[in-house]
Amino acid sequence: MTPESLGWRASDLDTDEMILNMGPQHPSTHGVLRLELRTDGEVVRAARPHIGYLHRCFEKHAEAVDYPGVIPYTDRMDYVASMGNSLGYALAVEAMLKIEVSPYVQTIRVIMAELQRIASHCVAVGTYGMDIGAFTPFLHLLRDREKILDLYEWTCGARLLYNYNWVGGVSHDLPEGFIKACRQFLREFEAMTYPELIDLLLKNKIFIKRTANIGVCPVEVAISYDLTGPNLRGSGPPRDLRKDAPYSGYENYEFQVCVGKGEFGPLGSCFDRNWVRTVEMAESAKIVHQALDRLEKMERTDVREKVPKRVKPPKSEIYSRSEAPRGQLGYYIVADGTGVNPYRVKVKSPCFTAMSVFHVLSRGMYIADIIALIGSLDVVLGEIDR
Amino acid sequence: MDLFFALFPEKWPDWLRVALSAGIPAVLLLTFMAVGPIVYVYAERKIAGFMQDRLGPTRVGPYGLLQTVADAIKLMFKEAIYPTGVDKKLFLIAPCLVVLGAFLAMVVIPFGERSQVADLNVGLFYVIAVSSLSTVGLIMAGWASNNKYALFGAMRSAAQIVSYEIPAVMILLGIVMMVGSLSLQDIVIFQEGGLTHWLLFRYFPIMPLAFVIFFTAGLAECNRTPFDIPEAESELVAGFHTEYSGFFFAMFFMAEYTEMFVISSVASVLFLGGYWSPLPNHILQHIGPIGLGPLWLIAKAWFLVFVMMWLRWTLPRLRVDQLMYVAWKVLLPISMVLVVVIGGLIMIPATRNGFPWDRWVGWPLTALVFGALIAWMAGARLSKKRRVQDLAA
User: Fold this and answer.
1) Of A56, A74, A59, which Cα lies nearest the Cα of A334?
2) Hey, how many other C-beta atoms are within 10 angstroms of the C-beta on B341?
3) What is the value of pTM for the model shown?
4) What distances in angstroms separate CA B24 from CA B2, B16, B17, one per listed residue?
5) Measured between CB atoms, which of B52, B155, B318 is closest to A140?
6) Alpha helices, H only, chain A
7) Edge-first strand listing for the sheet containing A18-22
8) What are A104-159's pLDDT values in tens digits?
């Protein structure tokens, strides 16, 4: 019995590519990303990301509230790393108003931003391990993220969306005993979680095999698609705003800009991006240590002393950028000089540009690699869609 | 079976004695297999909790013991949803086939010298045949679900299980040559006389390698990490059982855990002396009416099940092509060489039953493995305790 004897012809068979919708409710698209994959068996011929499922009109909303009122909205953009968003916005508005916050407040901001970087990378690296199939590092890292969130809750009462970095200051002073508790956390993190993560995940042969040769983003591509942050540094260039254009007193701290090394494969692979994030956690811990040292020697000032009663910048416009955990976060703010609301707020989101390179990197991959690629770009859909 | 047959009075008609002596072990075995997954799932959760520095289930019953029971009851009372466009017949048959494939293999597993449901003379062949049955179930499930992810899962499972059966069978071939029989009972009897007689420690560096290959292939056959690509939850949502809910889903779950136990018990029968105690001269063997055989076998199988869980919570998942690479370019050539080498060694009279150093190599090695295991666990416990104290300070 042959297919022909049953009346089937080879030409009747459907040999088209199959369209596979991955997301928006897929467990590994890191939120509500939808990917339209044209697959040939397990091989992906083309991938098209569809975004916008989490669009909440942040930029339009910002025009309807006053300057400090925008801060809670910025928290909701990159909800995994809220502290970085509000810091960037506060810096932009402060530059418009020409407010210089005290070194004490600057140090607090650095501590908070770097703790947030650790917490954010904990999620990024942990879920990346989970994308590859290793479940345990994720829970180890979330355990430590919880400790950071405990510190935040203790300071400002919130665990996810803080509204902490205000224009001209921060909302709450650090509580008594914060320095000791923070040092305790860093000790635990550096002595246990970090080496365990390296041993369990990053030195694992299967993990290296799964990530080191795929999603290779050459440095020219990375630059032409405007990748920033760990995604760019994974491809080699040591560009980091904390070093290149220091803000909030980052020039006073000693730390290294971590770059991908291409140890196990071509430079700029998924492994390198993930490696940069992992090493950055240790570097951030170093910065927090130094900041805590400075804080101990410093005189306490009122953290709200520079907070203006009414924010009404003169007619001007500004583009201000800062190094958020996921890359350069830019705020373009236009003030018309008449009202207390911004005329226009535009955000340059690092995740959005990271997503734009996706279709280039994903060509000809296996389905399993697509997951590895999304995870290594570490996008947060809240920030892409805004 | 003959154990029960002798128990019934001789004046009963033969057909009744046969029926009862077949029925009772079948019911016992089915109960054991059906209740087993509840224990394994609880164990898996607790082990995962231990490895991930969390508690695992604690609320339902003492130490959370009833959590899996509650989950099983919940799954039974949940509605089984048929998505639009499913092939309803296949959709229903598939989970049954998968469970059937897992359960059938238990028939020939010898739990003791006389506690075995059926001592088939083609036992090993039978195990291989029926364990492939579940593959058909998986493909059916994937096809019937009318879901692309399920289809991917089915394709992957077909490719994977077919590939990994070949190195496993190659290893079995070597064992069959050594023992000269396909019957599992004969294979166990061949290993009588304590730990040093186990097949694992014959031809010292060769058979441990064979065991590793067999165990790896076994992992792949029951879809466990690092070979869990058919249901890779981060890629294929849930693979072939994406569309299943309620009790049908529970059946897939049950099949997976039963298969783990089956693979582990087959591995213990083949390599770890089956129901024999590790001590020489039948120490701790013939106690009670049927002996301690079943306990030894279950203990060995559960140890291997534990190793599977341990691997699952430690290792990432391979990619499809890497999986195939491991099967065809690593495991298969090695196992083929092993078959030839074992065959050659059997031909030489001096090494007919193993190398001369096999007599003492087993003991220190076993002590080493268990010593390391206990040291690791104790170390983990200790560091956890210290951490808790640190936090309190």
Assistant:
1) A59
2) 14
3) 0.85
4) 11, 12, 11
5) B52
6) 58-62, 71-75, 82-97, 103-132, 136-156, 178-188, 194-197, 205-211, 219-224, 229-233, 241-244, 270-297, 350-356, 358-361, 367-377, 381-385
7) A18-22, A34-40, A43-50
8) 888 999 999 999 999 999 999 999 988 888 888 899 899 889 989 999 998 988 88
Give the one of B233, B314, B321 whose C-beta lies nearest to A136's C-beta.
B314
d(CA A160, CA A129): 22
Q: Cα separation of A145 and A193, whole Å?
A: 11
* 8 A C-beta contact, residue B271 and residue B199: yes
A135 contacts on B by Cβ (under 8 Å): 48, 52, 312-313
Chain B residues near residue A210 by CB distance under 8 angstroms: 316-319, 322
How far from the centroid of its chain's Cα atoms is residue B158's Cα?
19
Q: What are phi and psi of A304, to 5 degrees?
A: -110, 10
Tell whether A188 lies on the interface with B, counting CB pairs under 8 A: yes
CB distance A224 to A262 below 8 Å: no
Q: Looking at beta carbons, which residues of chain A come within 8 Å of B236? A: 367
Residues written for chain A: 386
A152: closest CA of chain B, how far (Å): 18
Sign of the dihedral through C-alpha B356, B360, B361, B362:
positive
Q: Is B229 on the interface with A (CB under 8 A)?
A: yes
Q: What's the CA gap between A209 and A261, in Å, rounded?
A: 16
Quote the minimal CA–CA distance from B389 to chain A in Å. Answer: 12
Residue found by looking up tokens 């990378």 in the block: A121
- Residue B374's H or E segment, with its range, is helix B358-392
Residue with tokens 């040939």: A40
pLDDT over threshold 70, residue A183: yes
Say how far residue B120 (Cα) sits from the centre of its chain.
Answer: 20
Q: What is the pLDDT of residues B126-141, one digit of tens each?
A: 988 888 888 888 888 8
Looking up tokens 């996921």 gives A326
Distance from the Cα of residue A288 to its chain's centroid? 18
